Amino acid sequence: MSRNLYDLIGLAAGICFILALKGLSSPKSARRGNLIGALGATVATVIVFFYANGGKALNNQTLILAAIAFGVVVGVPSARKVQMTQMPQLVALFNGVGGGAAALVAIVEYLKLGSDATTPVVVATVFTVIVGCVSFSGSIITFLKLQELMTTRPVIFPFGRQIIALTLIGVLASGGWVISSGGTTPLLINGLLSLLFGILFVLPVGGADVPIVISLLNAFTGLTVAASGYVLETTLLIVAGTLVGASGTILTRLMADAMGRSLFGTLFGAFTAKASTATGEADARPVKSGSADDVAILLNYAQRVVIVPGFGLAVAQAQHTVRELADLLAAKGVEVAYGIHPVAGRMPGHMNVLLAEANVPYEQLVEMEEINPTFPQTDVVLVVGANDVVNPAAKTTPGCPIYGMPILDVALAGNVIFLKRSMRPGFAGIENELLYEPKTTLLFGDAKDSLTKVVSALKAL
Q1: Which of 116, 388, 409, 446 is catalytic?
Q2: What is the DSSP string of 106-143?
Q3: Is 368 found in the same domain as 321?
Q4: Does residue 291 sit in helix, strand or coil?
Q5: Does residue 221 sit in the same domain as residue 356?
Q6: Strand-strand pairing, 304-309 and 335-340
Q7: Where is the NADP transhydrogenase beta-like domain (predicted)?
Q8: CA-wise closest residue to 312 among 383, 206, 253
Q9: Which helix (H) or strand (E) element contains residue 440?
């Protein structure tokens, strides 16, 4: 294969990545966008076999094919069988693996070049190792938090800020050591310190900020891939990595705004993190609970109903049942909409993906800025498995983990119905005062079972 043909095919693969991002901008074209992106990645991988190593035969073909086969064997079943509730964990793991792989490739290429490595290549290698290792170890901690294998609350330890700052200084100093003198030992020390910094960087992050961290680490991985493309002199990696890094950075900014955080506070929150005041314990005050029949009656005589989905909807796998309920209400002449908070769930767009799986019409999904002014004219709000995104503490309780986060103003509606398993607080670990308001009715139980009973009761009316 000639160099010109290689570059031309690589350009086509890059265009596929751009079209994939464009397709992902809308649920209607997201599936097509994913397929186009997969096609581009396949083409980018295949052409390496025909041009890598200067057009000569590719070295270690057996090992490369074995690695690809292993990735297919692990990746395909994981992606197909993963439950929707575990999708954020899978995203975090895949993202971390990408950053770690880019760092390893840069290290191998650096060792291969040895004394022939130019200063720009060494600088790009150091950048790739630092950001890739931070992305890898930080993503692992994010996975552990999402999987609840460790506490979801901020992990604060004595002299934490000072230790994090010293670790960062060590990362930068060891990076400068590599650039100035070279050598394997300084590079390995740089990688180890970067792994440690990634852990320390994410530990102080509480559950409410996890979606932002996922997006941020995704941007880190993209930048790592772009830098590794420079080290390998591969334009396609530079293009792909830059696209991921840029889109991830934009998404991080949007997520930070949705959480009421500054981007600076998100990036450097580890240095200013304070211990959370959340107790994670349910209040002993009485609440008003109801039955499925009570909820059905409220819904049946409503003119406008807004459904607010949350992580509990994904846990119960109740998206199809909530779609059936919405269709039944619409058939009775009730206006139905879904109030979507940007950080509902545990990753960006979690609820959009979940409801798209149930073929909920995209037009019924209304973003927070558009739905909030309509709550005073809403008769009933049905909150299914959400807590933090409707919690008034975000406006009334300074110092709590979600203070300052824009919320869905469901308290302004005529009636609020919460579908909950128990009185346990949400992911941020704080109590929701709205649960104790006279206008609020709680329907306890598994969301799917509860919704099924409500649907049956509605049909009987």
Answers
A1: 388
A2: HHHHHHHHGGG--HHHHHHHHHHHHHHHHHHHHHHHHH
A3: yes
A4: coil
A5: no
A6: parallel
A7: 8-456
A8: 383
A9: strand 440-444
Co-location of 349 and 446 in the same domain = yes
Residue 39 lies in a domain: yes
Integer-rounded Cα Rg, in Å, for the chain is 25
DSSP per-residue letters across 380-438: EEEEES--GGG-THHHH-TTSTTTT-----GGGSSEEEEEESSS---TT----GGGGST
Instruction: Determine the structural domain holding residue 234 and report its residue range.
Output: 85-274
Among 81, 113, 132, identify where a domain stops.
81
Residue 195 pLDDT exceeds 90: yes
Measured CA distances, 14 to 10, 33, 148, 315 (Å)? 6, 13, 38, 37
Confidence at residue 403, expressed as pLDDT on a 0 to 100 scale = 78
Give this prediction's pTM. Answer: 0.76
> Where does a domain end: 81, 101, 117?
81
Beta bridge partners of 336: 305
The residue to which tokens 């949007």 are assigned: 254
- pLDDT class of 1 with cuts at 50, 70, 90: low
Could you tell me if 393 and 402 are in contact, meaning their C-beta atoms sit under 8 angstroms apart? yes
Residue 91 and residue 145 share a domain: yes
- 204 and 156 in one domain? yes
Locus of tokens 């095919």 = 9
| 80 CB-contact burial (10 Å; exposed 0-12 / middle 13-18 / buried 19+) | exposed
CA distance 12 to 4: 12
User: How confident is the model at residue 47, as a pLDDT?
Assistant: 82
Residues 222 and 311 in one domain: no
Q: Are strands 380-384 and 304-309 parallel, antiparallel or unpaired?
A: parallel
- Band (pLDDT 50/70/90 cuts) for residue 275 is very low
CA 210 – CA 273 distance, rounded (Å): 14
Cβ contact 193:167 at 8 Å: yes
Whether residue 388 lies in the annotated active site: yes
105's tokens: 């490739």
DSSP string, 252-272: HHHHHHHTT--HHHHHSHHHH
Same structural domain, 40 and 174:
no
Residue type, 304: R
Task: Please state the separation of Cα 240 from the chain's center in Å.
Answer: 19
Q: Are residues 106 and 61 in the same domain?
A: no
Contact 303, 336 (CB under 8 A): no
